[in-house]
Fold this sequence. Notes:
Helix content is 30%, strand content 26%. It contains eleven helices and 18 strands. By secondary structure, the protein is an alpha/beta fold. It has helices at 38-46, 102-105, 147-166, 181-192, 205-213, 226-233, 250-258, 280-286, 298-309, 328-337, 340-343, and strands spanning 2-8, 11-16, 26-35, 64-65, 69-77, 89-92, 95-96, 116-117, 130-134, 138-140, 173-177, 197-201, 217-219, 239-244, 260-268, 289-292, 319-323, 346-350. Zinc ion (ZN) binds at residues 97-98, 101, 103-104, 112-114.
Amino acid sequence: MLALRLHGPRDARLDEIPEPAVRPGTVKVRVTCAGICGSDLSLYDTAPVPVDWPHPLIGEVGPHVLGHEISGYVAEVGEGVEGILVDALVAIQPNLDDGECPACLRGEPNLCEQGGFLGVNGGGGGFAEYVVAPAAKVFLMPPEIGPETAALIEPLSVALHAVRRSGIAAGQTALIIGGGPIGLGLLLCLRAHGVDRVIVSEVSASRRALAESFGADVIDPRSLDPVAHARKVTGGRGVDASFDAAGVGTATFAPAVEALRKGGTTVAVAMYHEAVDLDPGMLMVTEKTCTGSLAYTSDDFRAVIDAITEGRIDPTRLVTRRISLDEVLDKGIELLRGEGRDTEVKILVTR
Length: 351
Ligand SMILES: [Zn+2]
């Protein structure tokens, strides 16, 4: 089968590789849609996972298949798997955990000491014709959810987990720095959570237009200071929670922290391009919280599926382009690294 594998920095190739074989406790899925994520662009740029390092939970050396936002139809079911039938539409939760380390036993499997991701650390990925995943990470889709929306459950779960990390409550106010797929996902999750006042700071006009149509108060940070605007709309107090979904560095993190009210929380939910300066004395006198959000748990996945099924989240307009697997480099990854940054939100590889 054809698969996009990462051989090194800026060296991803469409290789012909054997189809993965189903094993006991796993499910083989014929991939229908796979989203291109900002983290795929970072992986492509820097190839941080050594090709000769076998992940402890997966045990394969690279080059690994990319793509971790995956939906598809069940092709084969492994021994011992119950309740998942061939031809069912499913979404795959790609983060793997050992289920037995202190983090897993605390109920934080996304922080598993041996955590890894399909589509990053081996075990196959979404930019291929087939992928095999543990049955516990395979979610059956209800009739309300089609294959394109099913591939959006992963990025929306990233957003929902970050919203939960912020501790924000219905009726409070939020600032999102960056209106890409995660920023817009945060907006959809916050609105579904009863947070009506959400400011989105984004430089791309098309992404701002989409955020506005989702009910945000949008600003272009080049013409309006997000901190000043956040203070203005909150009577000088600052927002209850903020999210840096851009990850540029101090340029995006500092305004997220500065726009907070005393005691507010900012969540880093991006791959950062550089380190940031932070003054602990400021944290002391304001009791602001700066935290991060890593991926999601199965509970986040289920909550997103429920929210879409019940119509509280409608993510369909996040998809701005559909391409085929043989176009994934030119019309997908390379486009998003260039001009597509301003014009696209989510590009799906479909078949
Ligand atoms: Zn663990």
